[in-house]
Design brief:
heterotetramer, A mainly alpha (221), B mainly alpha (310), C mainly alpha (665), D mainly alpha (483), D: 483 residues, two-stranded antiparallel ribbon
Amino acid sequence: MNGPLVGQVINLLAALMLLIAFAMLAQRRLLRLIHLFALQGAVLTLNTLVVAATLAQSHLYFSVVLNLVLKVIVLPMILIRLVDRLDLRADAESVGNLPLIMLVAVVLVILSFNVALPISELAGTITRGTLGIAMASVLIAFLMMITRRKAVAQVIGFLAMENGLFFAATSATYGMPMVVELGIALDVLVGTFIFGIFFFQIRETFDSLDTRNLESLKDRE
Amino acid sequence: MLLQLIQGLLAAALAPLVLGWLNQCRAWLQNRTAPSLLQPYRVLRKLLRKEVVLAVNASWLFRLAPYIVFACMVLAGSIVPLIATDLPFALAADVIALVGLFALARVFMALAAMDVGTAFGSLGSRREMLIAALAEPALLMVFFTPALISQSTALTTIVDQFSNGALQLYPSMAFAAIAFVMVLLAENARIPVDNPSTHLELTMVHEAMILEYSGRHLALMDWAHALKLTVYMAIGIALFLPWGVAHPHEWLGLPLALVALAAKLALFGAGLALLETLAAKMRIFKVPEFLGMAFMLAVLGMLVHFLVEA
Amino acid sequence: MPLLDLILAVVVYWIALGAIGAALPLERAIHARVFFPISALGGLLLTTVGLAGLGNWPQAAVLGLGLPDLPFHVRVDPLSSFFLLLLGAAGTAVSVFSAEYFQRGGGGDIRLICLQYHVFLAAMTMVLVADDAYLFMVAWETMALASYFLVITDHRVAEIRRAGFIYLLVAHLGAIAILLAFGLLQIGQWEYTFEAMRNAVLSPGWAAAVFLLALVGFGAKAGFLPLHVWLPEAHPAAPSPVSALMSGVMLKTAIYGFLRVSFDLLQAQAWWWGVVALAVGLATAFYGAVFAAVQNDMKRLLAYSSIENIGIVLAGAGLALVFHAYGMNLLAALALAATLLHCLNHALFKTLLFLATGAVMHATQQRSLGKLGGLIRRMPWVAALALIGTLAIAGLPPLNGFVSEWLLFQSFLLSPGLPNSYLNMFIPIGTALLALVVALSGYVMVKFFGTVFLGLPREESLHEAHDVGLAGRIAMGWLALWCVLIGLAPVLVLRALDPVFQQLVGAGLRDSLAQSNWTFLTAVAPEHASYNPVVFLLVIVAVILLGAMALRRWFPSGRRRAATWDCGFGKLDARMQDTAEGYGQPIKQIFQAFLRLERHHPSPFDLHPRYHSRIEDPVWEALYAPVARAVRRLSGIVGVVQHGRIAIYLVYSFVTLLLLLALIL
Amino acid sequence: MTELLIILCLPLAGAALLGLRGERSWAGEANAAISLVTFLGTLALAARVVGQGPLVLLTQLFFVDAFNVFLVTLTAFVGFTTSLFSRVYMRVEQERGRLTGKRLRLYHGMYQMFMFTMFVALLTNNVGILWVAMEAATLATVLLVSLYRTPASVEAAWKYFILCGVGIAQALFGTILLYLAAERVLGAGGSALLWTHLFEVKDQLEPTVLGIAFVFLLVGYGTKVGLVPLHNWLPDAHAEGPTPISAVLSGLLLNVALYAVVRNKVLVDAALGTHLPGYLMMGFGLLSVLVAALFLFRQKDVKRMFAYSSIEHMGIATFAFGMGGPVAAFGGLLHMTAHSLTKSAIFFAVGHAAQKTGTQNMDEIRGLVHVSPAVGWGLMVGGIAILGMPPFGVFASEFVILTTAMRDHPWAAPILLLGLGIAFASVFTRLQAMVFGETTAKRLPHPPAMLPVFVHLVLVLILGLYIPPYLAAWYRQAAAMIG
C-alpha cells in the first residue's frame, strides 16, 4: 500500500483506540468491560501489524505475535475465568456522574495533544501523529482507575494503561528494543497473575471486591 | 600604722557613747528623763560578767557568729576615714567592699539566728535578709553619685576630693543624702523599719535574731550593733560632710579632726533621734515601698548629676 | 610533649577508661572505687595543662578523623586553656567524689554510668579544643547526648524521663541554631575551619545574624532567659556528681562557645550586641534569683541559682562587648576579667554545693528542704565545707565570689565613660539590678544553708545521717581550698589570665595590677578603687582571737546549756521552725508578678486541711506551649492528606503529573 | 566477569530452590548463606571496579561504574544482614503460628527474587531493563506485604500494587520518550537505550522531549522513592508487611529508585542545560522533609513512624542530588549509605520489640531496656543515629548537605532545619517512652539476633567519625560523575 493510504489507516486505527478508551471509561458492566479491553488489544495488534508490514520493521512482527497472544487471548481469558470463579458476571458498578468524567476526559485529550505536539514534530516515524492519541489513551485509562471502585475494574484500567503505553511506543519509535519488550510483556503477565491472587485474598478477607472497605489505614483522627 | 590602731579602738570605744547620746536625745524629745550617757557601757559590762546560757542544740556557728560580726564591724570602723584619710587600711577596701563586709556580718548573724531552730530566729533572719536585699541596690546607687563626681569609689579619695575642693553645691548629692539616710534607717533597724528596743514577736527584726544570745555573746552583738550604727553615720559624714578630717601628714590636725568628728556625730545623732520620734514603725510589707522610694531618689540624684553637673 | 598531645591523650584515656568500665562486669563497689579515682588523675593532668596553656603560644593540629575534605582541626589557645583549667579542676573533684557516691547505690547501672560519665568528660574537652565547625558540632552534641543518658539514669520515674526529653530537645534545637551560625560564617566558600572564619569579612547585617544565632544557640545550652526551662528540670534529675558537672562545667562550655564566636570569630563588631547580651544577662540573673528563692527542692534551688550566675556571666560578657566595640579595650579587659573569673568561681562553688547536696541526699535519702534540718551536728565536715561554698556563692568578701562580683561592679561603675549617653544612664540602673540579684543570692543561700544544716532535724530519719567519707572530704576540700585561694590572691589569678584578655580584647590588666603589691586588687588604678582580701582576713581573725583572749582574761564566766526560749508555752519541736516555703514567702509576696502561682487554700470544713502551692515557670506557658500547640495543629492539617481512599491517592499522582507538565511547557 | 555471574545467577537459583523448599528448618540458613556468597561476589566486583575503573560486560548489557558498584555492595550487605535477622524472626513468627509452611516458601523464594531484581536494576546498562527490573521488584514484594493475610495487610498490599503500578507505568512513558530522543541521535536498533551511549551523547539530545521525559520519569520513579505527593503507599506497606521486608524496602528499594532518578537526571541535566531537574528534585525533597516531619508528630504505630522517617530521609537525599555539585552529591551518597544501614538496624530492633510486646502500638511498648537490654539499647542508639545526632554518620551527611545548601541556596537551609527539628521532637518522645520506663512485657524464649543491629550501628558510627580513604575516593569518583 502506498504512503498516504497507510498513514490514513494508522490514523483510523488510532482514532478507534481512542473511541474504545472512551467506551471503557463509560462502561458499567464488568463483562462488557473485559470484551472492550480485548477489542482494544486487537486494534493495537492490528496497528502494529500494519506498521510492521508497510514500513519493513521486521522485529515488529515478533511483538505483533506477542501482543496478539498476550493482550487479545490470554489476558481476557484469565479475566473472564476469574470473573466466573468470583461469580461477578452480573456485577455492575455505578460510575460517578458520567458527564463530568467525560468532560474531564475531553480536557485530557486536548492537553495530551498540546503536550505531544512538540514531540511529534521530532519523531522520525510517520506514525508520529498518533503519539498524542496514545498519550490521551494512557491518561484516560488513568482517569478510569481513579473513578472505579471495583477492584477488577481498576485492574482492567491498569492493563488499558499498558495498552496505551505500548501504542505510544509503536507510534513514537516503532516499538522498543526486543529485550525490553519481552521484559514488559513478562511483567504484565506476571502482574495479572498476581492481581488474580489478590482478588481471592480480598474476597477471603472482605468477601466483596469493593475498594470502599480498603480504607482503614489512615492518619486522620 | 599606730594611727590606724588608734582609729580602730577609737571607733569601738566611741560606738556605745553615740548610742547613749542617741537614746538621750530620744528621751528628751519624748520628754522622758534620759538615761545617763554612759548607760550603754554599764549594760555591756554587766552582760560581759554574766554567765552564758546556750540553747541545747546550738552549734559552733552560734558561738562563733558574735565574734565574727564584732570583728567585721571593727574592721569597717578602721577603714572608714573617721579622723584621718591616709590610713593604711583605707586602701584595703572601697565602698563596694564595705557593703560586702556588712553583708558578711549580716549573713553570719542570720545563720546564727536560724541555728537555734526557733520560729523567732528564722523569722528575724528572713526579714533581715529581705530588707538587706532591697536596701543594697539603693545603697549602691547612693555611692554611685559621689563616685561619679570624684571618679573613684575609695572613700578616702572621695573625702579628699570633696573636702579640699572648692565649696560647691551638688544637688545630686542632696538626693543621695536623703536616700542614704533612709537606707541607714533600714539597715540599722531604726524606727520606721524596725524598733530596736521592742520584743514584740511580730514586729522585731534585729532583736529576733539575737534573742537566744546571752552573756558575753549578747554583749558583743549589742556592741557590734552600736558600732555598725556609728560606722554608717561615719560613712554618711565622710560622703556628705567631709570637712574637718585631718589631711595626710598633718599631726596637729588630729585633735581638731577629733573635735569635728564628735560635733558631727552629735549633730547626726540628734537628727536621727528627731526622725525616730516623728516616724512610726511601718508594716513589714511596706518596707519594699520605703526602700523603693530610697532607690528612686538615688537614681534621680545620679540622673541629675548627668543632666546638670556632668 | 606539646600541650595538644597531652590533651588528646587525656581524651583518649577517658574514653578508654569508659569503655573498659562498661565492658568489665565488676560489682558496684570495686567499680566505683577503681575507675573514678583514676579518671580524677586525668582531670588533674588537664588542670596542669590548662595552667601551662595560658602561658604559651596557641598550638594547632589536624587529626586524621572527620570528613574527607574537612578533617578534625584542634587548637589550644589561651581562651580554651582557661576553660580546660576550669574543666580539670571541677572534673577532678567530681571524679573523686563519685568514687564514693556511686559506691553505695545512687541508682542506675554502674557500668553504663561509668561509660557515659567518661564520654561526657571527653566530649567537653573536645568542645574546648575544636577548631572547625564539624568537630565542634560533633563534640557539642556528643556532650549533650552523654549528659542526656546520665540525666535519665533511673528512668523509671516519669518526671525524670520528661526532664531528659525536654533537655535533649532544647539542646538539639540550640545545636541547629549554632549550625546555622557557622553556616553563615563561611560566606560561600565551604570553608568551615575557625581559621577561615576569623578572617572572613561579613557585612554588618550577616554578622549581626550570626551573633544572634550564636546567642540563641549557646543560650539554649547555657540557660539564657527564654530557653532556660530545661535546666531546673534536668539538673536535679541527674545523680548529684553529674548535676555538679553539668551545672559547674557544661554551662561554661556554652559560655566558652559564646565568647569564641562573638569575640574571636566576629571580633565584636557592633556595640548593640553587647547591650542585647547585657539585657538578656541581667534578665536571666534576676529571673534565676527570684525563682531560686521560692524553691523548696534542694537541687532545683541550686539549678535556678546556676541560671542566675550564668546571667551575671552573660551580663559581664555583654559589657565587655560594649567596651570592646567602642575601642575602650582596658575596660573591656576588666569586664572580661570579671566574666572569666566568675565562670571559674561558679564552677568551683556550684560544684562544691552540688557535691554537698549529693552527700546529704546519700545520707538522708531526702531531697526536699521541708524534710531536712539540723545536719550540722550529724555531718560536721559537709556542713563546714558547704558553709565555705555558701559564703562564696553569696559573694561575701574574703572568698572568691566577692572578687568577681567586685570586678563586675567596678566595670559597671566605669561605664559612664562610654560615649553613648543613653548607655551612660541605663547601665548604672543595670548595676542596681545586679546589686539586687547579688543580695537575693545571699538570701537564697542563707535559706539553703539554714534549712538544710541548721535548726532542729525535721525528720526522725535524719538522726542516723552519717558524715561523708574520705573521698568526699578530699573532693570538697579541694574545691573549698580553690575558693579560698582565689578569694585571697585574685591578683595572681588575673596575672595568669592576662594572655586570654590580650587574645580576646587586645588589652590586659597586667600594668594596672602591677602598680601595687600582689595583695591589692585594683580595678583601673589604685586611687580609683582597691580591695585587699588579705587585710580583711587578717584583721577579722586578729580581732576574734584578741577579743576571745581578752574576754577570757578579764570577764571569765562559765557556760551552761539550757532549753531554748519558748515564750513559756511548753515543748518546742521541729515543726515550729520556719519551713523552706515560709522562708521564701516574702520574696513570693513581693515578686508575685513574675511567678505563676497556684495556691490551694483548705476550706474551713476540711477534715484534714492541707495547704499546698505550686510555682510554675511562666515562660513555659508563654513560649513552649504555643509552639507545641502550633505544631500539633499543623500536623493535624497535614494528617488529612493520608486518609485511606485509594482513588484520592491516584488523584494526587495525577495532579502532580499535570502540574509538572504545565510547569515544563 | 565471573563475579557478575555469581551476583546475578545465585539469587535466581536461590529463589528457585527456596521457592520449593522454603518451609524447611534450614531454609533460613540457606537464605543467609546465599546472601553471604552474593555479598562476597559484590566485594570482589567492587575491588575490581575500584582497581580498573568502569566495566561494560555481557555485550554492553551490564555496566558497572563507581556509582552503582557502591550501591550494589551496600544492597548485598544489607540483604545479607537482613537474612540473618529474618532467620530468627521468621522462626519466632512460625512458633506464634502467624505463618504456614506455604507462606514461608513464598517468603524465602520472593526474598531472593527481590535481591535478584535489585542487582539487575543496579547493574543493567539498558534503561528499559532498569524499568523492567523495578517493575519486577514491585511484583516480588507485593505478595510479601500481604503475607499475614490481615485485612490491613491486604489493603496495604493492594494500595502498594496499584499506586506503584501506575507510577511505574508513567516511568515507562518517560523511558519511551527518552528512547525517542536517543534514537534521533544514536540511530535505531538496540543501542539507543544503553546508558553508556546516552552518557556520551547526552548534550546533543533534544531538550523539550527530555524535559517531558524527565517529568514522567521523576513522577514514576518518585512514587517508588516515596516523595511526598506520591508517598501514600509507603507507610502502609512498611507497617503491615513482615519486618524483614520493611527493612529491605526501606533500606534498599528506596535507594535503587533514587539511583534510577539520579541516572536520568545526569542525562537530562546535560541536555537541558538549565538547572530545572535540580530545582524539581529540590522542591520534592523539601516538601517531603517538611510534610514527613509533620506526619511523624501524630503516629501511633512504630513501623509507620519509621516509614515516615524514611520518607523524610529520602527527601533529604533527593534534595542533595537536586542541588548538584560534587560536594552535595558526596553528601547524598553518604546519606543514602548511612540511612539504609541505620534504618535497617532500627527495623531489626523494632521487629524484636514488636515480637516481645506482641504489639506495634507505641503506647503499649514500654521499658524495653528492662526486658532485654540489647533490643532496648539497639533501638535507642539506632533512633539517636537516624535523628542525626552527631557521632553517627547520618549527622555527617546532613552536615555536608546543610552546609552546601547554606552556600548555594541559603533559603533552603532553615526549612530543612525546621523539618529536622520537628522530626527530632516527635520521634524522640516516643522513642524514649518505648525504651525507658516501667514495663509489663515478658521475656522471649530465645535470645534476639541483635548482632546485625550492632554491626550496622558500629559502621554508621565509624562513618560519622572517620571515613576510610578508599571509601572517600569511591564516593568522590561517583560524585564527580553525578555532579
